[in-house]
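Hi team,

Below is the intake form for Serine/threonine-protein phosphatase 2A activator from Parasitella parasitica. Please confirm the fields before the structure is written into the shared record.

FORM ID: S-0412
PROTEIN: Serine/threonine-protein phosphatase 2A activator
ORGANISM: Parasitella parasitica
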Amino acid sequence: MEYTIPIKRIVTKEDLDQFLESNAFNEYIGYVERLNDSIKNLKIDSDIHVSKNVQAILDILETLSAWVKNIPPVENSKSRFGNPAFKTFYEKVKDSAAELFRNLIPDPAIKEVGKYFYESFGNQKRIDYGTGHEANFVAFLLCLEKLKVFDETDDQAVVLRIFIMSMSACRRYIQLMRQLQFDYWLEPAGSHGVWGLDDYHFLPFLFGSAQLLDHKYIKPKSIRDVDTVDAFSKSYMYLACIHFINTVKPTASLRWHSPMLDDISACKTWAKVNQGMIKMYKAEVLSKLPIMQHFMFGSLIHFEGGHPQSEGLEDECGHIHEKKSSLSEPDDNVFALGQEYPDCCGIPVPSAIAAAALKNLNGSSKPRPLPFD
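The structure came back. Fields below:
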């Protein structure tokens, strides 16, 4: 098989509509739904099978965690925007793909799989992170299955060991992302509809609601009770996410800073929450052009539609531009295919994590307020 480095192909709304009818979309969402089904009613620390290859990925994530510790943030205490040291971390992951995946996947496939991997930790130029980067990590996992590194018997471990957060010493993807968010103050990716339920993530809530599906005592409304959240956050990812939000946004109620989650808590059953999360993921992530214009396709996740975009013509947001062809026109950049420059990424949004961190740095009794406080 000939492997190809993934490129972006979704530029217009028509491209996105074509993707939503494609085999690539069906494969991706089918994989997410299968992972969701595999961990219904399981705790984070449930006794499950962990294969040698799953352990290999865990070891890689642990290696990246050590790199974060060895690449400390640069002095940037006057700003709550992303720390430039993240660019060094990102570059190290990118340059080390061949070494990280040697003996795990075929050498010819490393560049293709590796791109999904290092793109899953955030944007190197903007120093931000959002649901599109999270989607890259799922794409990475899907590629590993297509390469037969994983199979369906690994689904539970893929979610409960590789993906979601645990309080154990073993490093998971979400746990590593929290480390990056805290150490490098990654900004939420975009302020015009590009969002995660906790500023960064979506899938931990989807998978987390599956874990609680038939719980006898913990109900959706239980997220409003701080004691319940604290007591069970180590066992259930949904509650771990709420605990995280309560930690970094402690100055107001869930209703004020997370109204969507507060609305969802009114559902009577976790089954309804889980079904709604799947629908919301399709509608608010996979069907949003500002997110999916950054998604990439190669030989493993294959989509022939849209408009293939070349590397090297991206601005700091990752948008593709090209020079005007007429010599009589001003020598400036226009958006590819003659479209207007997309107002998708919005203004930079300072991290709530950074506000909480500066509270400690300044010795203040109150978190430094965000501009919209």
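SUMMARY LINE: The beta strands are 7-8, 128-129, 187-188, 296-297, 321-323, 333-335.

Thanks, M.
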